[in-house]
Amino acid sequence: MPTVPAPLQPAYDVVVVGSGGGAMTAAALAAKAGLSTLVLERTALVGGTSAYSGGACWLPGSAVQQRAGLPDSTEGARAYLAAVLDDPDPERVEAFLQHAPELVAALEADELMELEWIPFSEYYDAPGRVPMGRSIQPTSIRRDQLDPGVMALLRPPVERDRAGAAGRSTLSGGQALIGRLAAMVVRDGGTLATEHHVVDVRREAGRVTAVVVDTPTGPVEVGATRGVIVGAGGYEGSQELRALHGTPGSAEWTMAPRGTNTGDVIEACAKAGAATDYSGEGWFCPGLAHPDGSGTFTLGFRGGLMVDQTGRRYGNECLPYDRFGRIMAEAPERIPSWFVFDNREGGRLPAIAMPEGDPADHLAAGTWVTADTVADLARAIDVDPAVLTATVERFNGFAESGVDEDFGRGEDEYDTFFAGGTGPNKALTPIDQAPYVAARFVLSDLGTKGGLVTDEAGRVQDAATGRPIPGLYATSNSVASVFGSRYPAPGAPLGAAMVFASLAVRDLLAE
Ligand SMILES: Cc1cc2nc3c(=O)[nH]c(=O)nc-3n(C[C@H](O)[C@H](O)[C@H](O)COP(=O)(O)OP(=O)(O)OC[C@H]3O[C@@H](n4cnc5c(N)ncnc54)[C@H](O)[C@@H]3O)c2cc1C
């Protein structure tokens, strides 16, 4: 039976659905508070997209930023969010801001958790922005320092899971986050049950009391005496729900692990009376197209330029990925796009793609094409050679002058965070060394962020009454995001997921 450490009991104080950053935070804090805690995960591995992630957490105003000497504070973060968010829910935003430092303190009080600042520029030039960012991450840890049973269940990093890269003996980023939290859960008597797929939610006399689970040995019902906490991703893996809610991109191009996050728990909760708010929103990004039809999260463009199917640029390629993804989504001729680069990096993509894949495989499959001149490259991707040649020449002129007159590339701190150009503008490097390459790009995402409607304590709202449903909490990408359509800073998805997980546990303990 794929459970750590024991077979299932008929009921637990807390049943957590899913095993990403929010879910695992909830489980770790509940188990630590002495509640019997069960984590139900539909796949054979724990961690979901969170285990693929960089593990950056946007948790402003904490002791970690203070230790790093950053000009960060809850007030500064409040000003930043006030400037950045488009339609904020003030109560949830304030709950996030107030609780983030408390959560960090609670996590750091545990010997299994250690956090540090990670320099990573914030995504908007707005009041309250901290230069080089205020995101934090769990420190790296060797696998052999954590429970081996837990390690056997940890979803590997994305480049291993998707592209078969070699394993690592040290956990970093999202691996360290999930590994550390899962080890806390098990140490404190919690149970991790993989291949346990929650298919329904039971509600009796208004209260959510149990979940129905498909297991390798058949369906079971598991009771939750204090509450069910849902942290089971969004609906990014369901093409049907994406189409229904007008979410751009596709289930094929999302970064969620295969076969996960189909929104079924959100739907089950809705069937049990929960309110939903499907905004069609996601955490978007440009996605490098792969021969198998997938698209992989790409950021940190150091060179090259992106053109639409007419051979024209349409945005600042160095924008934060979610902002560039949204520009891609604005016009059909931008999906797919072509990313044009030269041979300065020996035929490798001048960007960070997770994963990039082997250029030879891309060239064989036609997801990349190469040519000795820009005009020939244009012909190979079915674009007017005169248009693409003019685009590249104009861009090379910008590289020489240091000013992108069309899209301002290189003007913001984020633009130059990854760039290492040697010209007058670090983010503008000429494209002039043959052979040239065009790589196909689609619209990918790190998850959707519409779903269950929750309040400032992570309580799921009843669609009929607008009041909290007793015994039902939700967080992570299973809920309509506290940040609405914005991706304010690195670590926003995990930071919000973890804060509302913690608030849910606090509420459940107070009940
Ligand atoms: C390469 C990469 C880097 C990233 N870096 C960062 C970063 O540094 N910081 C940041 O904040 N965000 C980052 N993100 C985004 C972030 O990882 C995700 O948006 C976030 O982790 C999603 O968390 P989640 O808990 O909603 O979903 P997940 O982490 O995907 O977890 C959901 C889990 O629930 C399980 N599940 C789903 N349905 C059921 C069911 N019915 N029953 C039981 N289990 C179920 C799934 O199998 C899955 O394991 C990154 C993403 C990628 C791909």
Name its key features.
single chain, alpha+beta, FAD/NAD(P)-binding domain, Flavocytochrome C3, Chain A, domain 1, 2 domains, 9-stranded mixed β-sheet, 15 helices, 22% strand, binds flavin-adenine dinucleotide
Describe the structure.
The protein has helices spanning 21-32, 48-52, 63-67, 74-84, 90-108, 148-153, 158-163, 173-187, 239-244, 264-271, 321-329, 359-365, 374-380, 385-401, 492-510, and strands at 3-4, 11-17, 37-40, 115-117, 136-138, 141-142, 170-171, 191-193, 197-204, 207-215, 218-230, 276-277, 282-289, 295-299, 305-307, 337-341, 352-353, 368-371, 436-448, 451-452, 459-461, 468-474. The protein has 511 residues and is of the alpha+beta class. The protein has 2 domains: 3-279 and 449-510, FAD/NAD(P)-binding domain (3-Layer(bba) Sandwich); 284-445, Flavocytochrome C3, Chain A, domain 1 (Alpha-Beta Complex). The longest helix has 19 residues, at 90-108. It is globular and about 70 Å long. The model has no long low-confidence stretch (mean pLDDT 96). It binds flavin-adenine dinucleotide.
